[in-house]
Amino acid sequence: MQPGFLRRAGALMAGAAVLVGLAGCGGSATPASTAGGATTASSAPAASSSKGQLVIYAAEGYDQAMANAFQAKTGIQVKLSDMSTGPIVTKIEAEGNNPQWDVAWFDGDGTMATLDAQGLLLKGWEPANAANYTALGKSLLPPDQSYAVTGITAAGAIAYNTKYVTAAQAPKTWTDLLQPQWKNAVGMDNPAISGPTFPVVAGFLYGMGMSNGESFFEKLKANGLKVFATNKPTLSALSTGAIKIAIAQDSAEIDAIKKGSPLAIVYPSDGVTMLPSAIGISSHAKDMAAAKEFVNFALSAAGQQVMLTKGGGDSNFAPLIQGEQPNPSRQQTGIRWNLVPAAWQASNYNPVQAWFKAHIVG
Q1: What angle do CA 356, 335, 140 make, to 5 degrees?
Q2: For residue 236, what is the enclosing H or E element?
Q3: What is the DSSP string of 271-288?
């Protein structure tokens, strides 16, 4: 990546600040990688008849656990539609000014910013618990207060199968993936379906410049790149040896290792794209008060603990709330973070998706 790519991330995270921010910040939960989506009611006690129903579209592994915890705490009935990020965005855009949702929650502030640009999100509201953000958390908030951020992961890190690749052989930089020994051996997710993957692609195009970034992916395709739908099939192919190298969200890679897959992770020396999880409220939410209460709950200590313990692989995030600690299995040092401005991602979302579909997937 070009040095200019790191200016903003470096300024935010220089020296000890990066470690403090991260130490503060794709199991039993509904998997976020479900392509088709599932709609469920919370299993917590039913709400009273005087309460409304909060409708959440989410792509987080802890979304069902959060729905249950929120309903138990408030008595507000929650209807959760769990699906991958791509289908969520498609559904929200199709509903337009007649939304059937109150809260949207998925990985990718740039993708959330695309909804904001269409006037689909509530602006100008700050949750009370936003006061508990770390310095990094505050820096990731949009100027128009159209969404909150709930944690960060690496949008894409390199994972390799230790049965076929040694630590010495493993790629150390992104351009190492173009070497002949990785012919037909590299896989990644489809950014049109997998929320964490659009920021991966955006990271290369923003960091290298559009032309050089596109050239990188074209060379990767020429070297036999395989594109899967989401983290789950990508990491399954890696675990079985169908591919030897994968580009995937680091939280999913950590989870696969915890479950016994013979994998190891490399954070390339030229950096990984920071991926904030974003939560926004519909500008036409039917129960605005309940929606605001849920977002505030997600930023509370109680909500963060649900997210950190009941989200399967998605619990392997770095918190952005003061006093919260990441899971010990998450690497906290030696990571060079690259930050792609959410506004840049939003303005380039459709052309980048179209280009990747036509030139890399197609």
Answers
A1: 70
A2: helix 231-240
A3: -EEEEEEEEEEBTT-TTH
How far is it, in rounded angstroms, from Cα 249 to Cα 236?
Answer: 14
Q: What is the pLDDT of residue 38?
A: 56
Burial of 289 per CB tally in 10 Å (0-12, 13-18, 19+)? exposed
Q: Please, which pLDDT band fits residue 362 given cuts at 50, 70 and 90?
A: confident
Instruction: Note whether 77 and 51 are within 8 A (CB).
Output: yes
Q: Which amino acid is at 356?
A: F
pLDDT confidence band for 52 (50 / 70 / 90)? confident
Residue written as token pair 């040896």: 241
- Gap between the Cα atoms of 306 and 66, Å rounded: 6
What span, in angstroms and rounded, lies between the C-alpha atoms of 271 and 20?
A: 19
Q: Please, are residues 341 and 202 in contact by the beta-carbon 8 Å criterion?
A: no
The continuous run of DSSP H or E covering 55 comes out as strand 53-58
Kindly list the structural domains of the chain, giving each domain's residue range(s) and its CATH number in brackets, ordered by start.
Answer: 3-153+276-340 (3.40.190.10), 157-273+350-361 (3.40.190.10)
Q: In the structure, what pLDDT confidence band is assigned to residue 51 with cuts at 50, 70 and 90?
A: low
Distances (CA, A) of 350 to 1, 117, 195, 356: 23, 12, 14, 10
What is d(CA 10, CA 339) in angstroms, rounded to the nearest whole number? 9
Residues with Cβ within 8 Å of 167's Cβ and at least 6 positions away in sequence, in order, are 264
Terminal Cα distance for the chain, rounded: 26
Lowest mean pLDDT among 23-32, 73-82, 227-236: 23-32
Q: What single string gives the DSSP state of each residue in 156-177?
A: -EEEEETTT--TTTS-SSGGGG
Calculate helix-pair angle for 197-208, 109-117, nearest 10 degrees: 90
The mean pLDDT value for 183-203 works out to 96
Query: For 196, how many CA atoms within 13 A lie in the half-sphere containing its CB?
Result: 33
Q: What is the pLDDT of residues 80-127, one digit of tens each?
A: 999 999 999 999 999 999 999 999 999 999 999 999 999 999 999 999
Asked whether the beta carbons of 102 and 268 are under 8 A apart, the reply is no
Give SS3 for 9.
helix
User: Which residues are 314's β-sheet partners?
Assistant: none
Question: What average pLDDT score do residues 131-145 get?
Answer: 98
